[in-house]
Amino acid sequence: DRAKQSLAVLFLDLDDFKTINDSLGHPAGDQVLVTVAERLRRCIRPSDTVARLGGDEFGILLDDMSGPSDALLAAERIIQALSSPAYLDGREVSIRASLGITLDTHGEKADTLLRNADVAMYTAKRRGKGRYQVFESSMHVEMVERLEMTAHLARAVEQHEFTLEYQPIVNLESRAIEGIEALVRWRHPTRGLLPPSEFIPLAEETGLIVPLGWAVLQEACRRAADWQVPGHPSLAVSVNLSPKQLADPNLVTEVGRALEASGLDPECLILEMTEDVLMHETDDILLTLREVKALGVRLAIDDFGTGYSSLSYLERFPVDMLKIAKTFVDQLGNGEPRSPLVEAVIGLGEALGLRTVAEGIETAQQLDRLRGLRCEQGQGFLFARPLGEQAIDTLLRKRDAPPGSVPEPTFV
Ligand code: C2E
Ligand code: MG
Ligand code: MG
Q: Rounded to an integer, what is the distance from CA 154 to the centroid of its chain?
């Protein structure tokens, strides 16, 4: 009948509500919820129903619509209405929400509709927040797969199924290996060696990146300590830190522990982080980073230039180096006589006293251009791919060989 055909259920969940609660306090969080409820009420018709489902979740029942497009329009209206800034104690707060929609096409029961809308909301969140998504039955499958993958990942962390590869970082003038970057891989029992792109996003989302990341740090420091050769310039090891690790209250302890257990000279440890972290959680992170710096380690901004690129944070945070993102390096040596972005980043590094390290150098032309621009260090397939422990060990031993035998590129 008509009434059944025209029903839709919306499931709304605020984006980053925890951040509001954590940074502005729970009373502010409550106020946000009140504001959201008021705005929702203004978006719907008297015949519709809004209910708070708990936490920062709301359910909306749209009754008596003339067609499915009504539900989509309502979702757009809601996202729009929520997006205008709210003021709490004179502070501007932006509210965003993700929405899932179930259109009742099969005469489903109410709790099924709500559950499906929840699944659709979850998908909306994963696809980038601040948007809506209509439920499709494939979403259930995806969700189950993700749950399984999460369980696998959790077990893998516990059972140490991860291994590190190390990519040499060379001096662009002499080609001498001055450092290595530790890059994690998952030795998956059935799928083989998986690159970070296959599991880091899920590890981030589930928080598993924190225990995994600390294990990586301990291991990388231990190896780097082994690979120091008396009488040789020291070998630095770069370790990637996830935003979740930077927010972990154990950060300073974990770094201290890794240094102590390995005996690695703190000067030899470089922690890499992406710029978005520094853009968002400024004050707390600033304090933590100062503490980490006090241990004597160095900090690098990874993939520099691909994030939000507000430069003010560079002066505020105690960073030591900028890693020029591969996307910029790719533009070098394609025949263009100039490369303003790379020049600008290297110039910025010089002006701020930061070392620049180019990532993803693949061709001799790129190397020439970078050297011409006085970029100090680099890494890339031109010099070496990420290598297993054994291969790195062999390569580092070659440093003892007479000059001339060192610079040969290594392909594996
Ligand atoms: P990243 O830190 O920017 O690492 C550099 C990535 O570029 C590595 O990919 C490396 O293999 C690749 N690469 C280096 N030279 C070249 C080149 O010449 N050409 C090309 N095409 N690629 C090159 P990988 O190992 O797949 O790692 C990807 C990303 O995963 C890393 O980017 C880093 O953001 C993340 N990651 C890796 N290990 C860890 C970890 O232990 N913890 C965390 N949180 N993230 C990690
Ligand atoms: Mg890195
Ligand atoms: Mg990078």
A: 18
